[in-house]
Amino acid sequence: MVKRQLPNPKDIFEYVQFKKPTFNGRQRRLQDALTIYDLRAIAKRRTPAAAFDYTDGAAEGELSILRARQAFEDIEFHPDILRPAEDVDTSTEILGGPSAMPFGIAPTGFTRLMQTEGEIAGAGAAGAAGIPFTLSTLGTTSIEDVKAANPDGRNWFQLYVLRDREVSYGLVERAAAAGFDTLHFTVDTPVAGNRMRDYRNGFSIPPQLTVKTVLDTLPRPWWWFDFLTTPKLEFASLKSTGGTVGDLIGQAMDPTISYEDLATIRELWPGKIVIKGVQNVPDAVKLIDMGVDGLVLSNHGGRQLDRAPIPFHLLPRVVREVGRDATVMIDTGIMNGADIVASVALGAKFTLIGRAYLYGLMAGGRAGVDRTIAILRSEIERTMKLLGVQSLEELEPRHVTQLTRVLPVPVAYGEAAEALAPTSAPVRTPRATSKAAAKPRTKAAAKTPAAETAAEAGTTPLEAVEQSSEAVEAAEKAVAD
Ligand SMILES: Cc1cc2nc3c(=O)[nH]c(=O)nc-3n(C[C@H](O)[C@H](O)[C@H](O)COP(=O)(O)O)c2cc1C
Known about the structure:
Number of helices: 22
Number of domains: 2
Helix content: 40-55%
Radius of gyration: 24 Å
CATH architecture of the largest domain: Alpha-Beta Barrel
CATH superfamily of the largest domain: Aldolase class I
Bound molecules: flavin mononucleotide
Low-confidence stretches: 423-457
Number of strands: 12
Structural class: alpha/beta
C-alpha cells in the first residue's frame, strides 16, 4: 500500500523548474534543433522551395545521395569497454596545418542564394571553430571577402576549370595571393548533372517570378526581404546568367579537362593540391603516384552521376591500395558526427560537409552554421567516448563494420574487375562452416557470423561484404544439402 500525503507547494517548485523563455526566435529555433535533420526541417520551412530544392536535391533519381546516407546509417560500431574516455581530443593535422575537428566545410556554389549571409557565415563559423572553409569557383562572395571573414583561420579554394581558362587561373592566382593554403581541383563535373528538381521548380539564375514562385514567397517574406536588401548576388567567375544552375554550369565548364590541366595548375599554385571527386581505386593510385597532396573520394553529394559508387564503400579499398599515410578524404552523405568518426576509423584523414552546413545556413545564417558545427562536434565527441577512444589516432578499422543490404554482383572480367577486386588482404573463411552453425533461420541471420568474424579480425566493410556473401552461399548450400 502506497503512503499518500497532501502535495507540498515547496516540493512542486523543486520538481518543476520553469524554463526561461528565449525571446530571440532564431536562437530558440536553433537551440531546439538537435540533429542536422532538424536543421534541414527548419531550412525547408524558411527557404523558398526552388532554393531549398537546389540545395537538398541531387541528380536524376537522387539514388547516389540516398545510398551514401544509407551506407552511413548501416554502420555497426564496435566499442571497447572500461577504457577511460573522459576527455577526447578531436584535433588533427591536415594538409600541413591544424584542424580542431576532422571535418571542414565543402565548396558550394550559389551559396548566398540559399541565405544571404552565404560564404561569410560559413567562413566565419569555420574560423571560430578552428576548421577549414572551402570557397567554390561558383561562390557568391569574393576571395578577398572570405579572407576578411576568416582572417586567421584556414581557407581553401575549389577550382573548376572553365572554358575560359583565364578566368579560372586568375581566381587561382588571387586565392594564392590572399593566403589560401589548399586548392581543391574538382574533377567530377565535365558537364552538369541532371538536377530534376530545378527543372520542375522552374529554378533559374537570376530567380524569375512565376505564379508558382510568387505563391511560394508569401509564407517566406523574410527571405525575399534579405535577398533584396543586401548586396546584389554576384558570381566570382560566371558572367552568363539565365537558365537553371545546371544550364549555367554546362555553359561554363570545360568538358575537355584532363591530366594536362593538373600540370598547369601545379605550376600556378604554390600550396597543397587536392583532387576532389575521385571515384575508383586505379584513379586514386595514379593520382597519389603522381604526387598530388590529397584526394577527396566524393560523388559530389550525388549531384553529378547518379548511382555512382558510394564513397564510404570505396574508402577502405582506396586506403588499402594507397596506404594509411596518404591523405584520403571523403564527403557525400555526412549527416552525423558518427559518420565522420566511422570514416576516420576506416582510414580517412579528413571529411567535408556540404548540405549539413547549408541546412544550418538556411535555418539561421551564421548562428545556424555555428549550430551545425556544434551538433557535429558533440556527436563526434560522444561517439569517440562511447567507442572508448581518446584521440582520432586510436580509431581503427576494427571499430566499424557495415551491415549489408545489397551485395555487389561480382564483376567477371575487364578493368572493372581489377578496380573492384580485393587485392592484398586474403578473404578469410567465415566461422559458420559446420552444417549446424551454417543453417540459418533467414538469410540475414546467415550474415551475422561473417560480420562478427570481420569485426574481430579488424577487416573492412568490403571484406565484410565478401564474407557475408560467402556465408550466405555456405548456408544456402548447407540447407540444400
Ligand atoms: C548546393 C550545393 C552546391 C555545390 N557546389 C559545389 C561547387 O561549386 N564545387 C564543388 O566542387 N562541389 C560542390 N558541391 C559538392 C560539395 O562540395 C560536396 O562534395 C557535397 O555537398 C558533399 O555531399 P553532402 O552534401 O552530402 O555533404 C555542391 C554541393 C551542394 C549541396
